[in-house]
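Table S2 (text version). Query chain:
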Amino acid sequence: MRSLFLWAVALCYLFSCQSEQEESVIRQGEVPTAVLDQLNALGFNTIDIEVKKIETGYIVEGDILLTEDQIMHLSPGKLAPTEEHYHTDNLVTGLPRAVSVFVNMPQLYRDATDIALARYNAENLNLTFQRVGSSAGADIVISASPFFYFFFGILGSAGFPTANGDPFNEILLTRQFYDNVSNINGLATTIAHEIGHCIGFRHTDFMDRSFSCGGSPSNEGDGGVGANFIPGTPAGPDPGSWMLACGNTELDRPFTNNDQIALSFLY
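Corresponding structure-token output:
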């Protein structure tokens, strides 16, 4: 009888925890009208690309984290022309500069990060990358996303450089989507993509996400953070770009010739 009672208590506890988590996800998903109105004014598409509220802010464009303060204080900008590669107004400064990256995740992610960083370093930029063994002083920390990312279908998130010229300091990856990848180079591409955001790259198909995501044509808008055309990159699609808005988690997308032009122009 005592065993049955303990099992009943345990089941009640588990059910209570699950309910609290579900309620947390529901609360996290509520986006105030004022925030949606501001995002629309900034040029973000909030209809075809759902905005998701999380504990630290809002996920827009599928993988960009913006705080509410950032959203409410950004100013609407002018939409960029319909060329391919774009960067934000803020970029990493203090070049030449080494960016340190700490991976607070299992070995698979550390190995994939090494591949991603090697791709950047092979371009001989004035911005180099090194993986470090501690989060203390690291410029970018890569960690597992909170549980509700999976419920929302968010594969990962990053942000854009600060006004002080520092890279965005956090990348979150949802382990449920990546722990069992069979192609480590696909995971390396995802990490390189999120690092791209951290150093100021917008999505390559900024002007029409349907190119990589499908669905109806959708322009992401300036977003108040800038969407500046990078000279030397072509008009029209760049199918293999590492900064396409959507992609298969197993698909390896090393830098294309146009990606290399964009990287060299900025850094």
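Notes on Table S2: DSSP finds nine helices and ten strands in the chain. The beta strands are 52-54, 57-60, 64-66, 86-87, 97-104, 127-132, 140-144, 156-157, 170-173, 228-229.
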